[in-house]
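Milestone M4 deliverable, item 7.
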Amino acid sequence: MKTVTNKFSNIFDSIMSGLSKYKEAIVKGDLFVKLSFLWMGAGYFRRKQYIKSLIITLFEIAVLVFTFTFAIQYVPKFGTLGTVKQESVFNPITMQKEFNNYDNSFQILLFSLVSFIVWAIFLVVYIRNIYRQYQLQLDEQNGKAPEKFKDYMNKFLNSKFHITLLALPVLGISLFIIIPLIAMIFVAFTNYDQKHMPPTELFTWVGFNNFVQLFGGGGITSTFGYAFVRVLIWTLVWAVFATFTTYIGGILLASLINNKRVKLKKMWRTLFVITIAVPQFVSLLLVKNFFADGGIVNTICANIGLIDWLRDIGMINTTYIPFLTSPGWAHVMVILINIWVGVPYQMLIATGVLMNLPNDQIESARMDGANSFQIFRHITMPYVLFITGPALVTDFVRNINNFNVIFLLTNNTYTTSNQALANSQAKEIDLLVTWLFTLTRDNYNYKMAAVIGIVVFVISAVCTLVVFKRLTSGDKEGAYR
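Output delivered:
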């Protein structure tokens, strides 16, 4: 908490420092610095930095053109997300249907967001530009020669080369991650669903109503609160078991293969690597068929009398074992199948770590009388956990969003008999991410899907921050040097 507070304090101090410099430029700047409030290249032009003046002027013109030819069509409607519905009228002259000048709520939301981002970037550049031109004025007063444009650009190949390298990735992240993420957050505060689908219908802002509905405050007719609690609990249970079973299983398997008594180590490693080479969706679809109600596993179980025995003791009441079609059975099976899919990958990671174990500590422990289990518990496991801790956090977050295993094993196979869950388009075996997928693909309930997406993001972020904080606390690295 203290670290977070310090970070916010540093950000606040940086903002206040920037505003102070901006105020100083306003008060003490010369005529051309003040003129740069209207013409951003004025100060550069006055000090014969013509290329910089041209670039910043073109940037200013581009933003103005963007504002008055594009943004002005959408931003004024952002508060209502449109008021004119689509209507068609038959034109007897052209013998065709013609549409009115209707509003598209999603376009208004998205293009307004893009406009806000462009204006935010412009504001930052605008303020920095004024202060930069004031700094050029001070340099001139102190007899310091202005920096040549060629020297300025060379910095981006030397001292500021990191900016050059990061420019394209940051642009890609902004376009394909940040803007869609913010748009999703905006959608969570609207009534964008199947009844309000642009362009035929409009949607509008509803505030926190969707969040209230998801967290159980939607009234007696809403089952989203009930479904959310059930799905959230299973998501966290799944993430814990799916992460730690494969993690521990991979370490144990790697330790077994690396044991001096085990022969043909390369062969065993190769066999497990081959399982990784097979595409996961192929493996999961094959396993799904194996464990189907009429699959080969149920056939074998029937032939050996296992199904009759399970029916006699009351564990099932069908002529097959509902491996993937019944609550409880399906929960256990997806975890077990995930172990089979995930352990080989974790085995490879653990193998690389185990090859670099601190042998001096192990030998010292043996001389002190420690047995193999004690060495594994107090030396091997802490060392592996320290090295692979960040990967473990990543695996946990990945399993919260593990779409493949749940969807491929249960899609078109599992049907819920819980009417409350069905009313919210959820199933007992759903994760938050698969529930989100069903809401968008099959039911076009984008508003609730956006809210669930925000919840998934918050859970993943909190888990990551908390665990990373614990992993990086103390001088663990020095202990293994």
